[in-house]
Amino acid sequence: MASQLKVDTITGxxxxxxxxxxxxxxxxxxxxxxxxxxxxxxxxxxxPAFRGSFNMSSLTDSETGIYELNFTSIxxxxxxxxxxTNAQAEDYNQDKTEYQRYSSSTTSKVxxxxxxxxxxxxxxxxxxxxxxxxx
Length: 135
Prior knowledge:
This protein has 135 residues and is mostly beta strands. The protein has strands spanning 20-22, 29-31, 37-44, 49-54, 56-63, 66-71, 81-87, 98-105, 109-116, 119-120, 126-132.
């Protein structure tokens, strides 16, 4: 018979913010907090607006193709988090080169730039995720 556990809070015994989870094969453990996304945003650059988000306080439209994600909870240090970003091509064409990258970041925000054929371009769907240590 399967069990079901319902709780509002999980806290580590040794350290409140550290919980080890046994991994696949039962031979290793993973720190639960380290594996969780600390923020994400699905952005419409055309509007600009969030289509959905977590740990984002606001979105700033800097200029064509460039937007800034401002975090609700900041990260502990600049080198303690990673950013994954991707834009969905609206008009897929083999002759176009599209990419998205973050152009600058601090512990409280990140600027993201979308480029198509070497020119900044707004996209209607842009996905971003953040992983790392919050302050």
